[in-house]
Design a protein that fits this description.
Elements lengths: L3 E5 L3 H12 L3 E5 L2 H7 L3 E5 L5 E3 L2 E3 L10 E4 L6 H9 L7 E4 L6 H8 L4 E6 L4 E5 L2 E4 L5 E4 L5 H9 L4 E4 L2 H21 L3 H5 L2 H20 L15 H5 L3 H11 L9 H7 L10 H10 L5 H14 L8 H7 L8
Parallel strand pairs: 1-2, 1-6, 2-5, 3-10, 6-7, 7-8, 11-12
Antiparallel strand pairs: 3-4, 8-11, 9-10
The structure holds NADP nicotinamide-adenine-dinucleotide phosphate.
NADP nicotinamide-adenine-dinucleotide phosphate binds next to α1 and α3.
Length: 336
């Protein structure tokens, strides 16, 4: 019998991870909304850019009580729902239960720790994108290595991932890993405001200049706060802004060597705007604005991105051209 794993808040990430782990022999229970669970109950298809595909059977339920019997609970709700997820899990998880946050942002594991005293909560980091292709079908659209806090309590997940052919690395520097991911995720807002697939957006220098400006601002505040930022790709974070501003042809050639991405993939923030859900902007750009304030620096580019995403959440513009977004961020006339 495989490891019993429950995934709470199964959407794009939860269904793909659950499906992949089930393919490796884990006994998976997905806990989520009725509309998602109804789609996966009859069978879950998980595909990927490179690597085996799988059709698997999982248990799918809307009942949080199903998490009580799991050896490991993975949380994959969006950041705004973490506190509520923690409160629901607190009612059913026994003392000593192991919970892993596979969420973006730098606070979710702490929010879960606050809600789940006497349980062991570990931070994780998902480097790749997942898109829902059809009912019950999820596709991993880019690659990378999952990371999890280095702790004996995480071994069950490490073993389940290894059995499923899913690269995972225990890390002793999870805060730096999470900040490194956050700096990369500053593109989520730019992608969502572009209305374009990630590969198309990143192929255009106008958008990359916006991202470079947001990253420079973030890296400046992180350095001022003495916060380490882990390198998660072949390119060190401090060199990324300069790389991003290279001309299109040169950037595209270099980027192809660093990261492969499905031409249809988009950011989960685009998904949220499309579904008229609140985005995670407070946990991404908002985190940089707050950090900048703490260290006495300004963060006008990230602040402007928060405002534009808020406007988009309220039905505003989300089909910016690169040059137009550059100007809207107060960066001056656009250079293409
Ligand atoms: N998608 C990606 O490619 C990607 C990549 C890397 C990291 N991430 C991160 O991974 C996390 C999950 O993202 P995602 O894209 O998988 O989100 P998602 O598709 O929105 O999935 C989360 C699911 O949890 C459900 N949910 C929320 N609260 C719940 C509750 N109390 N009980 C049951 N279900 C609940 C949501 O339903 P409602 O919508 O009805 O609330 C939604 O169906 C985020 O932090 C995201 O930033 C995502």
């Amino acid at each position: 019998m495989g490891t019993r794993i429950a995934i709470f808040g199964a959407g794009a990430i939860g269904c793909w991870v659950g499906g992949r782990l089930a393919a490796g022999g884990a006994e998976i229970t997905l806990i989520g909304r009725t509309r998602v669970m109804d789609e996966v109950r009859g069978g879950l298809r998980v595909t990927q850019l490179a690597g085996p595909d799988a059709d698997v059977t999982v248990t799918a339920t809307t009942e949080v009580a199903a998490a009580a019997a799991a050896e490991l609970v993975i949380v994959t709700v969006k950041s705004a729902q973490t506190a509520e997820a923690g409160a629901q899990l607190a009612r059913v998880l026994p003392p000593g239960a192991v919970v892993v946050s596979l969420q973006n942002g730098v606070r979710n594991a702490d929010v879960l720790r606050g809600a789940l005293p006497d349980r062991r909560v570990l931070a994780g980091m998902v480097p790749w994108n997942v898109v829902r292709r059809a009912a019950g079908a999820y596709h991993r659209a880019s690659q990378g290595t999952l990371m999890i806090e280095d702790d004996p309590a995480g071994l069950a997940l490490v073993h389940a991932c290894t059995a499923a052919g899913l690269a995972i690395e225990p890390r002793r520097d999870m805060p730096a890993v999470q900040w490194g991911k956050l700096v990369m995720n500053l593109n989520n807002a730019i992608n969502a405001l572009s209305g374009l697939p990630l590969a198309t957006e990143l192929s255009q220098r106008g958008f990359r200049r916006c991202l470079a400006a947001a990253q420079r601002e973030a890296l400046g505040s992180l350095a001022a706060a003495n916060i380490a930022v882990a390198r998660l790709t072949a390119i060190p974070p401090r060199l990324m802004p300069s790389l991003l501003t290279l001309p299109d042809a040169l950037f595209t050639r270099l980027a192809r060597r660093v990261i492969a991405i499905d031409p249809h993939a988009r950011s989960s923030m685009w998904d949220d705007l499309e579904a008229k859900r609140p985005t995670e902007i407070d946990d991404l750009q908002g985190e940089i604005v707050a950090l900048a304030a703490r260290v006495g620096r300004a963060a006008p580019v990230n602040r402007a991105l928060v405002a534009l995403v808020r406007a988009a959440e309220a039905g505003g513009k989300r089909d910016y051209a690169g040059a137009e977004l550059y100007a809207a961020l107060g960066l001056g006339p656009a250079v293409t």
